[in-house]
């Protein structure tokens, strides 16, 4: 087994604010991935590696709305 990880300290600022979504987190399933991050999108909106990303200007507007019992629906 070769463990991998995502480099969170980045020069591009995409992970300056990051949330780990509750995917395969509490009830783990083998070979289903380890996490889905919610973070800032890259310039030009390149694809993520399975994450969810939003515009940099939208993140500060969203943060105050998040709380322990808030449910985020991603479609």
List the helices and strands and how they pair.
Elements: E1 19-21, E2 36-40, E3 52-54, H1 59-62
Parallel strand pairs: 2-3
Antiparallel strand pairs: 1-2
Tell me about this structure.
This protein is mostly beta strands and 75 residues long. Helices cover 5% and strands 15% of the residues. The chain has one helix and three strands; from the N terminus they run E-E-E-H. It has one helix at residues 59-62; strands at 19-21, 36-40, 52-54. The chain has a three-stranded mixed β-sheet with strand order 1-2-3, with no helix packed on it.
Structure annotation, total helices:
1
**Major β-sheet annotation:** 3 strands, mixed
The SS-based structural class is: mainly beta
Q: What are the segments in which pLDDT stays under 50 over at least 5 consecutive residues?
A: none
Question: What distance lies between the first and last C-alpha atoms, to the nearest angstrom?
Answer: 32 Å
Strand order of the largest sheet: 1-2-3
Residue-averaged pLDDT, rounded?
82
Shape: globular
Helix proportion range: under 10%
The radius of gyration over CA amounts to 13 Å
Please report the total strand number as a whole number: 3
Beta-strand fraction estimate: 5-15%
Q: Order of helices and strands, N to C?
A: EEEH
